[in-house]
Design goal:
Order of helices and strands: EHEEHHE
CATH class: Alpha Beta
Number of strands: 4
Largest sheet: 4 strands, antiparallel
Strand content: 25-35%
Shape: globular
Helix content: 25-40%
Strand order of the largest sheet: 2-3-1-4
Distance between the termini: 9 Å
Number of domains: 1
Length: about 100
Amino acid sequence: MTTPKGYIYVEIEVTDPEGYRANYMTRSTPAVAKFGGRFVVRGGDVTVKNGDLTGRRVVLVEFDSYERALEFYESPDYREAMAHRDRHAIVHRYVIMRGAA
């Protein structure tokens, strides 16, 4: 039986794009890689069929397991990145999910 994947889904409003890229993304990207994560969606085009994402960037990250996604979130590497993120963006939704078995 295979272990279900873990996912992190984020809706974020970037208020300072240069600061976000320079201070958050340069820290979060290596942290994701360190925990075996991979970006499935990282910004880009979206078509909203219900609800409102106006001004928000959508990110979806996949991990080998739900537990690994939780470990990433709680890691000192990501905690440091979050401190920078919160200076340059507003997080509207941050969800850690277990994938379907």
